[in-house]
Amino acid sequence: MSSPQGNTGDIVNWPMLKIVYRTDKDKIAALLPPGIEPGANPNVNVTIYNFPVPDEPEYGIVMTVDADYNGIAGEYTLGYGIDQESAIFTSQQTNGQPKFPCDTTYYRMGNNVTARCSHQGYTFVEFSGVSSGQNEPQDEFEQHEWWIKVSRKAAVMPVQEYDFPPHVVHVRSKYGTAHREAVDGQLVLHPSPWDPIATLLPMREQLSAHLWWPIFLDREINLAGQLDPEAFLPHLDVISGSRWPGQNGGPKRST
Protein backbone atom coordinates (compact mmCIF):
# COMPACT_ATOMS: atom_id res chain seq x y z
CA MET A 1 0.00 0.00 0.00
CA SER A 2 1.45 3.37 -1.05
CA SER A 3 1.53 6.39 1.25
CA PRO A 4 -1.40 8.86 1.14
CA GLN A 5 -1.55 11.00 -1.99
CA GLY A 6 -3.26 14.32 -2.77
CA ASN A 7 -2.63 17.64 -4.43
CA THR A 8 1.08 18.11 -5.12
CA GLY A 9 2.64 20.15 -2.30
CA ASP A 10 -0.46 20.01 -0.09
CA ILE A 11 0.88 20.10 3.49
CA VAL A 12 -2.15 18.19 4.80
CA ASN A 13 -0.42 15.08 3.45
CA TRP A 14 2.77 15.60 5.46
CA PRO A 15 3.27 12.82 8.01
CA MET A 16 4.41 13.38 11.57
CA LEU A 17 7.77 11.93 12.56
CA LYS A 18 7.31 10.20 15.92
CA ILE A 19 10.27 8.92 17.94
CA VAL A 20 10.25 7.18 21.34
CA TYR A 21 13.29 6.60 23.51
CA ARG A 22 13.94 5.31 27.02
CA THR A 23 15.52 7.49 29.70
CA ASP A 24 15.82 7.13 33.50
CA LYS A 25 12.71 7.14 35.67
CA ASP A 26 14.31 9.46 38.23
CA LYS A 27 15.10 11.97 35.46
CA ILE A 28 11.42 12.11 34.53
CA ALA A 29 10.34 12.32 38.18
CA ALA A 30 12.60 15.34 38.72
CA LEU A 31 10.71 17.29 36.03
CA LEU A 32 7.16 16.44 37.13
CA PRO A 33 5.33 18.73 39.57
CA PRO A 34 3.92 17.04 42.70
CA GLY A 35 0.59 15.44 41.79
CA ILE A 36 1.74 14.13 38.42
CA GLU A 37 3.52 10.78 38.58
CA PRO A 38 5.98 9.01 36.27
CA GLY A 39 4.29 6.54 33.93
CA ALA A 40 4.80 2.81 33.82
CA ASN A 41 7.70 3.21 31.38
CA PRO A 42 10.45 5.89 31.48
CA ASN A 43 9.77 6.93 27.89
CA VAL A 44 10.35 10.24 26.14
CA ASN A 45 8.20 10.99 23.10
CA VAL A 46 9.40 13.34 20.37
CA THR A 47 7.13 14.42 17.51
CA ILE A 48 8.36 16.58 14.63
CA TYR A 49 5.79 17.86 12.18
CA ASN A 50 4.61 20.26 9.50
CA PHE A 51 0.86 20.82 9.66
CA PRO A 52 -1.54 23.64 8.73
CA VAL A 53 -2.46 25.74 11.79
CA PRO A 54 -5.06 26.87 10.99
CA ASP A 55 -4.44 27.15 7.24
CA GLU A 56 -0.72 27.82 6.83
CA PRO A 57 2.28 25.59 7.53
CA GLU A 58 3.46 25.25 11.11
CA TYR A 59 6.75 23.46 11.64
CA GLY A 60 7.19 22.20 15.16
CA ILE A 61 8.46 19.73 17.73
CA VAL A 62 6.59 18.28 20.72
CA MET A 63 8.50 16.78 23.67
CA THR A 64 6.61 14.72 26.26
CA VAL A 65 7.30 12.08 28.90
CA ASP A 66 5.05 9.22 29.98
CA ALA A 67 3.19 10.39 33.09
CA ASP A 68 -0.01 9.63 35.04
CA TYR A 69 -2.52 11.97 36.66
CA ASN A 70 -5.52 10.86 38.75
CA GLY A 71 -4.84 7.27 37.75
CA ILE A 72 -4.96 8.04 34.01
CA ALA A 73 -1.92 7.10 31.94
CA GLY A 74 -0.82 9.87 29.62
CA GLU A 75 1.99 12.22 28.68
CA TYR A 76 3.29 15.33 30.47
CA THR A 77 4.29 17.94 27.91
CA LEU A 78 7.57 19.77 28.39
CA GLY A 79 7.45 21.87 25.26
CA TYR A 80 5.94 22.67 21.88
CA GLY A 81 8.60 24.42 19.79
CA ILE A 82 6.87 26.08 16.84
CA ASP A 83 7.64 28.63 14.14
CA GLN A 84 4.28 30.48 14.26
CA GLU A 85 4.71 33.30 16.75
CA SER A 86 1.03 34.24 16.51
CA ALA A 87 -0.01 30.92 18.07
CA ILE A 88 2.45 30.89 20.98
CA PHE A 89 1.01 33.40 23.42
CA THR A 90 -2.70 32.72 22.94
CA SER A 91 -2.10 29.00 23.43
CA GLN A 92 -0.13 29.63 26.64
CA GLN A 93 -2.72 32.04 28.06
CA THR A 94 -5.80 30.03 27.14
CA ASN A 95 -4.79 26.45 27.85
CA GLY A 96 -1.33 26.54 29.40
CA GLN A 97 0.08 24.85 26.30
CA PRO A 98 3.87 25.15 26.75
CA LYS A 99 4.79 26.72 23.40
CA PHE A 100 7.99 28.56 22.54
CA PRO A 101 9.67 29.80 19.32
CA CYS A 102 11.71 27.20 17.46
CA ASP A 103 13.18 26.73 13.97
CA THR A 104 12.47 23.29 12.49
CA THR A 105 13.76 21.73 9.29
CA TYR A 106 11.82 18.62 8.34
CA TYR A 107 11.52 16.91 4.97
CA ARG A 108 11.40 13.61 3.14
CA MET A 109 13.25 12.88 -0.10
CA GLY A 110 12.21 9.53 -1.44
CA ASN A 111 12.46 7.29 1.62
CA ASN A 112 15.12 9.45 3.31
CA VAL A 113 13.79 11.41 6.32
CA THR A 114 15.64 14.40 7.78
CA ALA A 115 14.77 16.68 10.72
CA ARG A 116 16.50 19.13 13.04
CA CYS A 117 15.26 21.69 15.56
CA SER A 118 17.01 24.83 16.79
CA HIS A 119 16.26 27.48 19.43
CA GLN A 120 18.31 30.60 20.23
CA GLY A 121 21.07 29.41 17.91
CA TYR A 122 21.37 25.94 19.47
CA THR A 123 20.42 22.83 17.50
CA PHE A 124 19.11 20.48 20.19
CA VAL A 125 17.55 17.65 18.16
CA GLU A 126 18.55 15.98 14.89
CA PHE A 127 17.21 12.92 13.11
CA SER A 128 18.21 11.11 9.94
CA GLY A 129 16.68 7.87 8.73
CA VAL A 130 15.17 5.77 5.95
CA SER A 131 11.49 4.85 5.80
CA SER A 132 10.45 1.29 5.06
CA GLY A 133 7.69 2.59 2.78
CA GLN A 134 5.41 -0.17 4.03
CA ASN A 135 2.11 0.56 5.78
CA GLU A 136 1.80 -0.65 9.39
CA PRO A 137 -1.93 -0.61 10.26
CA GLN A 138 -2.91 0.76 13.67
CA ASP A 139 -6.21 0.68 15.55
CA GLU A 140 -7.97 3.83 16.75
CA PHE A 141 -6.60 5.06 20.08
CA GLU A 142 -6.99 7.77 22.71
CA GLN A 143 -4.16 9.93 23.97
CA HIS A 144 -4.14 11.85 27.26
CA GLU A 145 -1.84 14.84 27.57
CA TRP A 146 -1.15 16.98 30.66
CA TRP A 147 -0.43 20.73 30.48
CA ILE A 148 -0.18 23.25 33.33
CA LYS A 149 -2.18 26.48 33.47
CA VAL A 150 -0.85 28.92 36.09
CA SER A 151 -0.42 32.67 36.56
CA ARG A 152 1.96 34.33 39.00
CA LYS A 153 0.78 37.29 41.04
CA ALA A 154 1.13 40.65 39.32
CA ALA A 155 3.88 42.62 41.09
CA VAL A 156 6.86 44.91 40.48
CA MET A 157 9.24 42.08 41.40
CA PRO A 158 8.51 38.34 41.04
CA VAL A 159 6.81 36.94 44.13
CA GLN A 160 5.95 33.40 45.13
CA GLU A 161 2.21 33.98 44.96
CA TYR A 162 -0.49 33.39 42.37
CA ASP A 163 -3.27 35.21 40.60
CA PHE A 164 -4.33 31.77 39.31
CA PRO A 165 -2.86 28.74 41.13
CA PRO A 166 -1.52 25.77 39.14
CA HIS A 167 -4.11 23.58 37.49
CA VAL A 168 -3.68 20.49 35.34
CA VAL A 169 -5.15 20.81 31.85
CA HIS A 170 -6.35 17.47 30.48
CA VAL A 171 -6.12 17.12 26.70
CA ARG A 172 -7.98 14.03 25.51
CA SER A 173 -7.53 13.23 21.84
CA LYS A 174 -8.84 10.37 19.72
CA TYR A 175 -7.04 9.34 16.55
CA GLY A 176 -7.24 6.98 13.66
CA THR A 177 -4.35 6.18 11.35
CA ALA A 178 -4.46 6.73 7.61
CA HIS A 179 -0.96 5.35 7.14
CA ARG A 180 2.11 4.48 9.23
CA GLU A 181 5.66 3.63 8.15
CA ALA A 182 8.57 2.44 10.28
CA VAL A 183 11.77 4.48 9.95
CA ASP A 184 15.26 3.07 10.45
CA GLY A 185 17.19 6.04 11.81
CA GLN A 186 18.81 7.65 14.80
CA LEU A 187 17.71 10.52 17.01
CA VAL A 188 20.63 12.66 18.19
CA LEU A 189 20.27 14.98 21.19
CA HIS A 190 22.61 17.95 21.51
CA PRO A 191 23.31 19.93 24.71
CA SER A 192 21.52 23.27 24.82
CA PRO A 193 20.90 25.73 27.67
CA TRP A 194 17.55 26.61 26.08
CA ASP A 195 16.25 23.09 25.43
CA PRO A 196 18.09 20.78 27.84
CA ILE A 197 16.55 17.51 26.66
CA ALA A 198 20.01 15.94 26.20
CA THR A 199 21.07 16.62 29.79
CA LEU A 200 17.78 16.37 31.69
CA LEU A 201 16.37 13.41 29.73
CA PRO A 202 19.42 11.52 28.43
CA MET A 203 18.76 8.78 25.90
CA ARG A 204 19.47 5.26 27.12
CA GLU A 205 17.86 3.42 24.19
CA GLN A 206 15.90 4.49 21.13
CA LEU A 207 12.77 2.34 21.05
CA SER A 208 11.02 3.31 17.82
CA ALA A 209 10.69 5.80 14.98
CA HIS A 210 7.92 6.04 12.42
CA LEU A 211 6.06 8.34 10.06
CA TRP A 212 2.39 8.76 10.93
CA TRP A 213 -0.50 10.17 8.92
CA PRO A 214 -3.14 10.81 11.62
CA ILE A 215 -6.91 10.92 11.32
CA PHE A 216 -8.25 13.44 13.85
CA LEU A 217 -11.43 12.01 15.38
CA ASP A 218 -12.02 13.97 18.60
CA ARG A 219 -10.37 16.37 21.04
CA GLU A 220 -11.33 17.85 24.41
CA ILE A 221 -9.38 20.34 26.55
CA ASN A 222 -10.52 20.84 30.16
CA LEU A 223 -9.21 21.79 33.59
CA ALA A 224 -8.72 18.54 35.48
CA GLY A 225 -7.74 19.65 38.97
CA GLN A 226 -5.57 21.96 41.05
CA LEU A 227 -2.03 21.07 42.12
CA ASP A 228 -0.62 21.94 45.54
CA PRO A 229 0.34 25.64 45.19
CA GLU A 230 3.18 25.46 47.72
CA ALA A 231 4.66 22.28 46.29
CA PHE A 232 4.48 23.74 42.79
CA LEU A 233 6.60 26.83 43.63
CA PRO A 234 9.90 25.29 42.41
CA HIS A 235 8.23 24.68 39.04
CA LEU A 236 7.25 28.31 38.42
CA ASP A 237 10.46 29.40 36.72
CA VAL A 238 10.72 27.89 33.26
CA ILE A 239 12.70 28.47 30.07
CA SER A 240 10.86 30.52 27.46
CA GLY A 241 7.29 29.14 27.25
CA SER A 242 8.29 25.53 27.90
CA ARG A 243 8.16 23.56 31.15
CA TRP A 244 11.94 23.07 31.21
CA PRO A 245 13.18 24.34 34.59
CA GLY A 246 14.76 27.76 34.28
CA GLN A 247 15.58 30.88 36.24
CA ASN A 248 13.49 34.02 35.76
CA GLY A 249 12.25 32.81 32.38
CA GLY A 250 15.67 31.96 30.94
CA PRO A 251 18.15 29.09 31.08
CA LYS A 252 19.42 28.07 34.50
CA ARG A 253 22.67 29.76 35.36
CA SER A 254 25.39 28.49 37.66
CA THR A 255 25.97 30.42 40.88
The CATH topology label is Acetoacetate decarboxylase-like
Question: What is the helix/strand order?
Answer: EHEEEEHEEEEEEHEH
Decide which structural class fits the backbone: mainly beta
Mean pLDDT value: 93
Number of extended strands: 12
Explain how this protein is built.
- With 255 residues, this protein is mainly beta.
- It has four helices and twelve strands, in the order βαββββαββββββαβα.
- The longest helix has 11 residues, at 85-95.
- The chain has a single domain (11-235), classed as Acetoacetate decarboxylase-like (Beta Barrel).
- A hairpin with a 4-residue loop joins β3 and β4 (57-69).
- It has a seven-stranded mixed β-barrel.
- It starts with 15 loop residues before the first strand and ends in a 23-residue tail after the last helix.
- The model has no long low-confidence stretch (mean pLDDT 93).
Features of this protein?
4 helices; 255 residues; mainly beta; single chain; Acetoacetate decarboxylase-like; seven-stranded mixed beta barrel; globular
SSE order and pairing:
Layout: E1 16-22, H1 25-31, E2 37-38, E3 43-52, E4 57-69, E5 72-82, H2 85-95, E6 99-101, E7 103-109, E8 112-119, E9 122-131, E10 141-152, E11 162-189, H3 197-200, E12 205-226, H4 229-232
Parallel strand pairs: 5-6, 5-10
Antiparallel strand pairs: 1-3, 1-12, 2-4, 3-4, 4-5, 7-8, 8-9, 9-11, 10-11, 11-12
Summarize the structure.
This protein is mostly beta strands and 255 residues long.
